[in-house]
Specification:
461 residues, mainly alpha
Length: 461
């Protein structure tokens, strides 16, 4: 194997990836800011935000997963120089994202009674419900924004979503500070202020994204003369056929992590708070792999459009290798800093919360050691999944992810968390098992498909 043929792709991969990574980090940062600011109010408030966001993450995963169908079709159409296909994909994709955003908002509101069925602490539920109402509404602008983002990503215009997210985060921090703690003319709203801050920042984010794209001369033809008469069943069906399995893939993983929140909630509120801290940190580093996954999807789609399967394999492997190297660095950082990072999220000067907080720090430190290991598995599975989406192969990966997370991962999490002394640590061992199974099976699928495509193309030549 000639390593240089892969490493020479690193610089372009990173150039395309860094705006996506920063954009993804921006999404995560909105949740982290809520956790840090609310964490200063107390561990009960932190657990409430964790519980509320666990339901939002499920809905969000469906919306974001579904919207990824837009990118490979647009990227493939750009390689084919088919402008009418790009325009049609954008309009149909945005139309579907608007409908899906509204449906997900209603679904989360209707699903609130599930909290009681999950045996979560009563004081946590009473705080989580009103917070959830606001954050659920923020799903509408968020999923619409995804329609714009995936369209721009498909055209390799990855910087614009980064600008929108940076703006949204600045607005979010300011509004959060004013509404959570009370400042000047603003009332002290506690965790409700965090929910309202999320809504306002996401409405501004989608508005900003619309205007920044429409002002680009090269994109103006795609924004003109939208009509419902243009909506065709064939394109809707194509996006849904790609989007639904992609949404399910993301849903299976996110619900596994959400189940970890619920399992830790059953163990106790300190375990739930510790899980939330570890999850926040692991999610932050995971965004780098998510960014590379988008690059994988874009570049593989382009090579598919060009029918250059030899180069497709080289590009894919270069992205896989880059992801592994970066995740190893993060793994080492988690090992070195596992006893220090949890303090960022807690107010250790609050004497009433001191015993709880000390317990949270100990549990979170242990979870970060496991997170260090699964960084690598998580990174591999998500970039390979991006490559498979680029090939528009989504149904078999949907089944593979279900088996990995729910036939392998969850039973281990449940058993070790509920029936052994491992408790929260056992829950995370299950997460590691599920992610590793996904990484191995998805890579095997990608290797099989690309080998077949390359062989068929050589026969035709």
């Amino acid at each position: 194997m000639n390593l240089s043929q892969y490493t020479k792709e690193f610089s372009y991969n990173l150039k395309l990836a860094y705006p996506v990574i920063l954009g993804m980090l921006g999404h995560t940062l909105i949740g982290i800011v809520d956790n840090i600011m609310v964490g200063k109010l107390g561990s009960t408030e932190l657990a409430a935000v964790s519980l509320g966001n666990s339901m939002i993450f499920i809905a969000m995963s469906i919306g974001i997963g579904f919207s990824t169908a837009i990118t490979p079709i647009v990227a493939e159409a750009e390689a084919e120089k088919n402008e009418s296909k790009i325009r049609s994909t954008f309009h149909h994709g945005l139309f579907l994202c608007i409908i899906l955003g509204l449906l997900l908002f209603l679904l989360v509101i209707l699903a609130k009674p599930i909290m009681e069925l999950l045996h979560q602490p009563k004081e946590v539920i009473s705080l989580a419900k009103p917070y959830l109402d606001w954050v659920a509404f923020s799903l509408v602008p968020l999923i619409i924004y995804q329609g714009y983002k995936q369209f721009a990503d498909g055209l390799s215009l990855t910087k614009y979503s980064m600008y929108a997210i940076i703006m949204a985060n600045i607005v979010h921090v300011i509004i959060n500070y004013c509404l959570i703690y009370g400042f000047w003319i603003f009332p002290k709203m506690g965790i409700l202020g965090a929910g309202l801050g999320t809504v306002i920042s996401r409405i501004m984010m989608v508005t900003f994204m619309h205007f920044i794209l429409i002002k680009r001369e090269i994109l103006k033809p795609y924004f003109q003369d939208f009509s419902f008469k243009e909506i065709k069943k064939t394109m809707l069906k194509k996006i849904i056929n790609l989007g639904f399995p992609s949404a399910m893939q993301m849903l299976f993983e996110v619900v596994l992590f959400t189940a970890a929140i619920w399992l830790c909630g059953i163990i106790g509120k300190t375990s739930q708070a510790a899980n939330q801290i570890a999850l926040c940190l692991a999610s932050t580093t995971f965004m780098v792999a998510m960014g590379l996954s988008v690059v994988s999807m874009i570049r593989i789609s382009q090579q598919k459009g060009l029918k250059d399967y030899k180069n497709l394999i080289i590009i894919a492997r270069s992205i896989f290798l880059l992801a592994i190297l970066i995740e190893i660095v993060f793994a080492l950082l988690f090992v070195l800093l596992h006893n220090y990072l949890p303090y960022i999220f807690l107010n250790m000067e609050d004497h009433h919360q001191l015993l709880d907080n000390q317990e949270v720090v100990v549990i979170a430190g242990k979870l970060l050691l496991i997170a260090a290991v699964f960084q690598i598995s998580d990174g591999i599975q998500v970039v390979v999944l991006g490559a498979l989406r680029g090939l528009q192969d989504v149904k078999i990966p949907m089944y593979l992810t279900f088996i990995s997370y729910w036939i392998i991962g969850f039973p281990i999490s449940y058993y070790l968390g509920q029936y052994t002394s491992y408790k929260a640590v056992g829950v995370w061992i299950g997460l590691l098992a599920g992610l590793t199974a996904a990484a191995i099976s998805l890579y095997a699928r990608f290797h099989y498909l690309t080998k077949k495509l390359h062989k068929n193309s050589e026969i035709k030549v």
